[in-house]
Amino acid sequence: MKSNMIRWALLILGILLAVLGVVMFATPGINSIVMAYAVCFLMLVYGIAEIAYYIAHHKSHVVSGWLLADGIITALLGLLLLFVPGAQILTMSILFAVWVLFTGVTRTSAAFVAKGAGSSNWGWILFAGIIGILIGIWMMFDPLLAVMTIGFILPVTFLVQGFSAVAAFFATRVK
Question: Structure pTM?
Answer without folding.
Answer: 0.56
